[in-house]
Amino acid sequence: MPGMTKTLKDLLADRTALESKIAAAKKEESAEALKTVHALVGEFGFTAQQVFPWQPAKAKVAAKYLDEKTGATWTGRGKPPTWIAGKNRDHFLIEKPQRQPDPFWDGVAAACARADS
Fold this sequence. Notes:
Layout (H helix, E strand, L loop, with lengths): L7 H37 L3 H4 L13 E2 L6 E2 L28 H14 L1
Antiparallel strand pairs: 1-2
């Protein structure tokens, strides 16, 4: 019927039917594509690595040093950046080392504290 526009309900029904046809065609064509891939892999003896080359994910290394002036960081691997080269790296550590308890000196400190009381 010329000049007659479809209603929203009709358009949605058309879309649903079209999406269904698209899904069926995709399923059929993907099955054919997979058969072709299997045939080529079998014919040429490709390995999974050749078909799908992958590399293990590189482990990210957390920054160990921080230049507080610029906010630049360095992991401690590779060539040191200019802001840390030739300097005492302990001053740039992000996590300052914790003092390990020493029973002897802790005992001395405790004895001094008792003597002062």
